[in-house]
Amino acid sequence: MLEVKAADKPDERRDFPRGHLEAVHLTGLDFAVGTFEPGWRWSESVAPIAGTQSCQFHHNGYVVRGRMHIRMDDGAEEELGPGDVFVCSAGHDAWVEGDDPVVVLDFAGPMAQDYARADRG
Length: 121
Fold this sequence. Notes:
mainly beta
């Protein structure tokens, strides 16, 4: 089997306040490009859609541009920037640091399938 899709022609786009997600769905891989504008914060922009107090998605990601701060529910914190590869478990808040948009590539399938969907969290 060989399957190829272009990330710049996503299967779907989900908009939320101060950002959007573009998802590409392949057999065995759901891939997302998240774009977050200055002022975006998960607890303000996506929590009302998800209906949870913190993000309940696992992320396997790569930061293309911008800076993002992540605070885990247990209090652990980290700031991510361009070139950082990260794994973040469910139970966190995140926000854009600074005046530049953040672009993140996420290879965690459920995130690309259900993130910021009113009917799925």
